[in-house]
Hints:
The complex is a heterodimer of chains A (197) and B (243).
Chain A: H1 8-11, H2 15-23, H3 27-49, H4 52-68, H5 80-99, H6 102-109, H7 122-125, H8 129-140, H9 144-154, H10 160-167, H11 171-196
Chain B: H1 3-9, H2 12-16, H3 22-32, H4 36-54, H5 63-87, H6 113-125, E1 130-132, E2 141-146, E3 155-161, E4 166-172, E5 181-189, E6 192-199, E7 207-212, E8 219-226, E9 237-242
Antiparallel strand pairs in B: 1-2, 2-3, 3-4, 4-7, 5-6, 5-8, 8-9
Amino acid sequence: MSADPPTTQLTRLADEDLLTLVERGDAEAFEVVYDRHSRVAHSLAFRLLGDRQAAEDLVQDSFLAVWRGAGGYSPARGSVRNWMLSIVHNRGVDRLRTLAAISRRQQALEQVELRRPDEPDAAALGIGRVMAGALRQELSSLPNDQFDVLKLAYYGGLTHHEIAEMLGVPLGTVKSRMRLGLERLRRGLGAAEAATI
Amino acid sequence: MTHEHDALRDLIAPVALGAADPHEIARVEAHASECAVCREELGSLRSAAAVLAVAVPQREPSPDLKASLMRTVRAEAAERAAGAAVEAGAPVAATRPRRSPLRWIGLHPWPVVAVVASLAALLLGWNIALQSGSDGSEDVTTLSISGTADAPGVTGRIVYVPGEDTAVVRLSRLPQLEPDDAYQLWVIRDGVPSSAGLFESTGPTEAQTVATGLEGADALAVTAQPRTSRTMPEPPILIEAAL
């Protein structure tokens, strides 16, 4: 039983090809997937749960879910990275909803801040610097009301019903702010991709 | 476009953010599977939401996390390979060709009064076959196990990977757990059981867990017992395997 690092050949494969190998039980291919995405997965898990051990437990559970059910990936769900992050996010939100009352989540959210424009990230995120810069700019220019609902929903694990109640605004308003905020991020994503072509 | 379409389209942003209720998510995903407009929008907003996933300060996970995860993954990979070999009709050896760190010896009774009677019955339920990787590519030892008198229908397999000092315990045809109960793995050394952790079902009647640090262990056992009572094993004991 060898614990040597994965071969160079494997590290050159695309995520989708690696997942095919993982589905066949290839532990080395899985290790390459882990090396590529564990940092961003752990960062999201820590931001959701606010505790290092809880975050590592979440990352471990999420990657084991990938290992044990890699067949669940479909290109229709987007990139492998986004699919894996959605697993981390869904499981993290489940834990938030199970373990924390809304008041505790509010408290945790006070510590939540989006990445600041001067923080390094492009290499860690596997995207180009131009794209990363465009995304940061789009995030930092979001109107506060849209920024707040995105933050409460995505990092706080609150449903749109809970957010409406918490902010004292109609449900339709919350859904509208969510859509406007996401559409703005989508435009930023498109512009960023265009800038890298 | 119908009223239903408009109502569900309104929920796409909450769904993309993971901020909808489960029944709302199910409705939107079902609708999106038939509506190209909503399918495209859901995919597009999910991609936008993924920006939020990466827009947080980056933190490296500890090296221990990778080490622990890879121990489990390599052990399970070896277990899958061993299972495939069995299904392909590879001969099951009666002896193991390599000496592992574990001592495959008889079971000592545990110093737990409550389970002594059960243990006597357990011995009758064992059906252990030893085998190892026939091609020498993986040094693994596999035990086919069946349930104790407490749970005669249970079947399973323990695969021990000496290189990782890790065993994968896979059980099927398990009895249904009581609401507040959990499966619990025990490692027994010199007749003294110590907990190796709780684990959950992975299917309607199936469960799987991974045990590490088995050097010097005499036996593994699995119980179903209340989550709050985790310091000593209690009946029913579902399986027990002498190592």
